[in-house]
Specification:
The chain is of the alpha/beta class. The chain has 2 domains: about 160 residues, NAD(P)-binding Rossmann-like Domain (Rossmann fold, 3-Layer(aba) Sandwich); about 110 residues. Helices cover about 50% and strands about 15% of the residues. The chain has an 8-stranded mixed sheet, with helices on both faces. Strand 1, helix 1 and strand 2 form a beta-alpha-beta unit. The chain starts with a strand and ends with a helix.
Length: about 290
């Protein structure tokens, strides 16, 4: 793969730059609003790529250009890059999970192949993130040539590419948000509830983390319904009622609402697991009553 330029080497872009460098894949330039921060990333790479402020760009370096900027900025940044000549036959990709390659239309009009490459991995820091691509999945879409390049990049980073239609990207990304961002929010509620029982919140987190890890392990090894354990898997209505009373006493309406809404789906999973149909139906009716 010939040289790659990365526009916006922040958390995601910086992580990809560092990971590619470790794989001995040429990153020819980092293009940023803040060349100083990009320079810090560049100095950790061997060979060190050239660093440009986007306003200084006079020509395109690299056969592939990756735009790693906020979703709302992709179209504007692409239009700025389109003012530079030399796009014919090159490939432009953005990293957005929710938006498609249509945001790069200005570059397509200049002769570029366009697509998107979204790594399904949580990146809070470029250094930590650069080591998380191995074994992860990458969502790709776009022109045939752009998809070929995206697949090659995913493979090079140790990931597995998969393709979806452009119009499905918002729903795809919503599923990722539930699995990642909303999971963090859900677990924070669980940590807070346990903290109300006595431990401080950090201790509550440490107490629950092994349980969370064992659940993830179950999901890796079993079907989703089979990985469900506990009160809902057993259709244990008596324990459920004790939970509801305790949550009511805690005064957390948010926790109660989420407990019940997720409980509705847990009941459906328990049914798939083969729990007693009558017990499941009684459970489902009770949840519906409490949600009214």
């Amino acid at each position: 793969m010939n040289g790659i330029s990365i526009v916006g080497p922040g958390r995601a872009g910086g992580a990809i730059a560092l990971a590619l460098s470790r794989k001995n894949i040429s990153v020819s330039s980092l293009i940023a609003r803040d060349p100083e921060s990009a320079g810090r990333i560049a100095r950790e790479m061997d060979p060190s790529p050239r660093v440009f402020a986007i306003r200084e760009l006079r020509s395109i370096n690299g056969e592939t250009v990756i735009l790693s900027v906020n979703d709302d900025s992709i179209k504007t940044v692409a239009e700025s890059l389109a003012r530079v000549d030399g796009w014919e036959g090159r490939t432009a990709l953005h990293l957005s999970g929710s938006r498609g390659s249509e945001l790069l239309e200005s570059l397509k009009a200049k002769g570029a192949n366009t697509g998107s490459l979204h790594p399904l991995v949580s990146i809070s820091d470029p250094h930590i993130g650069s080591r998380r691509f191995q074994g992860s999945f990458f969502c790709v879409e776009g022109d045939p040539e752009a998809i070929t390049i995206s697949r090659s990049l995913a493979d090079s980073l140790g990931g597995t590419p998969f393709e979806i239609a452009n119009g499905m990207k918002p729903l795809y990304h919503a599923s990722a948000v539930v699995a990642c961002g909303h999971l963090v929010a859900l677990l924070d509620l669980a940590f807070s509830a346990l903290a109300d029982c006595g431990p401080d919140k950090d201790e509550a987190k440490n107490i629950l983390l092994p349980l969370i890890s064992s659940t993830i392990s179950n999901l890796k090894e079993q079907r989703t319904a089979e990985a469900l354990t506990g009160t809902f898997a057993r259709a244990d209505l008596e324990t459920f009622e004790k939970h509801i009373d305790a949550i009511h006493e805690s005064g957390s309406d948010e926790f109660r609402e989420i407990y019940l809404q997720l409980g509705k789906h847990s009941v459906e999973l328990a049914k798939d697991q083969g729990a007693d149909p009558e017990a499941i139906e009684a459970f489902r009716r009770r949840i519906e009553d409490l949600l009214r």
